[in-house]
Structure formats: structure tokens, C-alpha cells
Specification:
six-stranded mixed β-sheet, two-stranded antiparallel sheet, 349 residues, elongated
Length: 349
């Protein structure tokens, strides 16, 4: 968007188009933006004396670009390291790393790690909260940085950020893993694209993720094993709901069809967690309604069910059962419509 906005006939320019596209995809209003180029990023890191980063996954990139349009080999080992500007740029920019670090998604995660490290170092030095230091840093960066922030707004934002520990910050990378919200696809002109799993241009799930990211993070932290039980007679409902919920970080381990003849009108959430799944239960009830029970219904015995791919065997038996009643059918179909397009009709039994 930035490139198209700067080169095509777009009177608002690349920055504004970039902001508009991010708003469309996330459903969130973007009030401010800041953009820094490669040289500016290096200068910012060097200006604060470098940053400390822990490398989680070692990798080698044999095709990292040089400044004379050639290639060089760069290597990163695991562990805590101190990066200067050039090293930080290599870590954030590498696109061809081994050991699973060659994807754009892995690169995005590394970039988020660097942003947090840069923030922590700048706060520790008082750079962000000191108007004089901040003004000097922005002056030294010059044309390498573009932002709609006023200097006083940066200082105000920094004072808020100073009270936020790293474990309170939430980040998500949208990637094409089986349990995520985007897929590989083909654009209208035949280009390779990453598109929502609901279909090209349908950002409804991403909007939901962005709007409820704090709740989703609480569910992710609990990581409670959940089983989805279909008590509606609607063929394929449990599988589709399980796939949908996995995209929002619910630890759905299995799904199962209720015994023959067992039909529920309302949804029931069975909490067998002894109080360790409060966020998961609350989020499921907010989504599907129904009642919460601490005991298993007589007509729905605990079953191993059909395990989902990538399920962690150490999770053991489910601690929460989401028993879907007829009231949940319309909710499920509106949430994840593509999963129901080719399903057979509901059973009459």
C-alpha cells in the first residue's frame, strides 16, 4: 500500500493509503502512524547504544543483500545478545533464514521482538520521556522518519508505555498455519496473496480478533483443553466450530457428536476445570450464550472424540465441554460461513 500510494495516481500519498488499508483489514481506527526506513532504524538503535535481544531460534541466511546489490551470509545463534544498528537490521530484515526463519511470518515475529527491545532500552535511558532527548533523536533521524505524532504526544505516549511491562503487551502474527485466520491464495490478477480464510476481502474474523484481542489473550494464557459436542443434528457443526475457535487461540483438542437422539435447544458449557478456566468459559458463553454447569449431563458422557490436528497429547481429558444447542447454529454459520457451504443437510434424528 505504501509503494502503490507513492507511485500511482493517489493524491493522498502512500502513508495515508497504508493507514486506510490497515483500518480496513483490522477494523480499528488508526489515529497516528510512524514510519522509519532502514537507515533510520539503524541510527535509532545506535543512538541509544544498541539493544539486548534473546534469539529463540538459530538460523543462517545465505542470501542476505549487501549494499552493492550482492549477497552475503549472516548467522544468528540462540541466546541473549547485544545488537548494534546493523546487526538489528539484519535480524529484522532477513528473508531466507534456515530452521523455519525464512518466512515473512517468522520475520514479523522477529520485528516485534526488536520493537519491544528498542522500547525497553529507550525507556530505561529516559529518551522517550525526555522532550529534549526525543527532539534530538528525531532531529538526527531527519528524513528517515515520518510520523503524524507531535513531539508532546510522543512524550505523553511514552509516559503511558512506561507503566506497561512487556508481559502486558499482546501481539499476534497472522500466518498460514492450519489454525490461523489467513490462507495462501491467488489474487484477481493471478498473484500469490495471503487472504482471509473466509475468502478474499472478507476481514470479519480479523476484525473480531482485533476487537477482542485482550480476551483472546486471556484464553490463550489459560490454554484449557476444550471439547466441542454437537447436540443439534446439524451435520459437521462440531468440526467447523472447532476449526473456527482454534483460529482464536482456543485449545480445542477434540470434537464429538452427541449420542443418537440427544438434541439440545440451548447451548450448555460444562466447566470441569475447578476454577482454572474462568476466562475460557466466559468467552465461550459470550459467543454462544447458554448456561454454565459444573457437572456433566447424564445424556452426554465424556468421550475421547475426534482429536484435532496439532493437538498436544499432554493436554489429557477436556476440562471444558462446549455442548452446542440449536440456538448456536445461526451463530456458528454467521461466524464461519465458508465451512458450511458444502455440508450435507442436518439429520432428522
Amino acid at each position: 500500500a505504501l509503494a502503490f500510494g507513492n507511485t500511482n495516481d493517489n493524491p493522498t500519498g502512500g502513508d495515508a493509503l497504508m493507514r486506510d488499508i490497515v483500518q480496513d483489514v483490522t477494523g480499528q481506527t488508526v489515529h497516528y502512524f510512524a514510519r522509519v526506513d532502514f537507515n533510520g532504524f539503524k541510527q535509532a538503535v545506535d543512538a541509544i547504544g544498541g539493544i539486548d535481544v534473546t534469539v529463540d531460534t538459530p538460523f543462517v541466511d545465505y542470501e542476505y543483500p549487501t549494499y552493492n546489490y550482492g549477497y552475503q551470509t549472516i548467522r544468528f545463534d540462540t541466546g541473549a545478545q547485544h545488537f548494534d544498528g546493523e546487526r538489528a537490521l539484519q535480524f529484522s530484515r532477513s528473508r531466507h533464514g534456515t530452521n523455519g526463519e525464512g518466512s515473512d511470518f517468522a520475520r514479523s515475529k522477529r520485528q516485534q521482538k526488536l520493537i519491544l527491545a528498542l522500547r525497553d532500552k529507550a525507556l530505561s535511558l529516559g529518551t522517550l520521556t525526555n522532550p529534549g532527548k526525543m527532539s534530538g533523536l528525531l532531529d538526527s533521524l531527519g528524513a528517515h522518519v515520518t510520523t503524524t505524532f507531535e513531539l508532546w504526544e510522543v512524550a505523553r505516549l511514552a509516559s503511558i508505555a512506561e507503566d506497561l511491562s512487556s508481559d502486558k503487551l499482546i501481539s499476534r502474527v497472522l500466518e498460514t498455519s492450519p489454525d490461523n485466520l489467513v490462507r495462501q491464495g491467488t489474487g484477481t490478477d493471478g498473484a500469490y496473496v495471503i487472504q482471509p480464510r473466509l475468502g478474499l476481502g472478507n476481514y470479519a474474523e480479523i476484525h473480531e480478533l482485533a476487537a477482542n484481542i485482550f480476551q483472546n489473550n486471556a484464553v490463550l494464557r489459560e490454554s484449557t483443553p476444550v471439547q466441542v459436542v454437537n447436540a443439534t443434528g446439524e451435520t459437521g457443526l462440531a468440526s467447523a466450530v472447532s476449526t473456527y475457535l482454534r483460529g482464536f487461540a482456543y485449545n480445542i483438542t477434540s470434537y464429538v457428536q452427541a449420542p443418537t437422539g440427544v438434541r439440545y435447544e440451548g447451548t450448555v458449557i460444562v466447566d470441569l476445570s475447578s476454577g482454572t478456566a474462568t476466562q475460557t468459559v466466559a468467552a465461550l458463553q459470550q459467543k454462544y450464550g447458554g448456561t454454565v454447569s459444573a457437572t456433566l449431563p447424564i445424556d452426554v458422557p465424556l468421550s475421547a472424540g475426534t482429536p484435532l490436528a496439532n493437538t498436544n497429547a499432554s493436554d489429557g481429558a477436556p476440562k471444558v465441554l462446549l455442548i452446542l444447542g440449536r440456538s448456536a447454529v445461526s451463530i456458528a454459520k454467521s461466524s464461519y460461513p465458508s465451512a458450511f457451504q458444502n455440508l450435507p443437510p442436518a439429520s432428522s434424528t
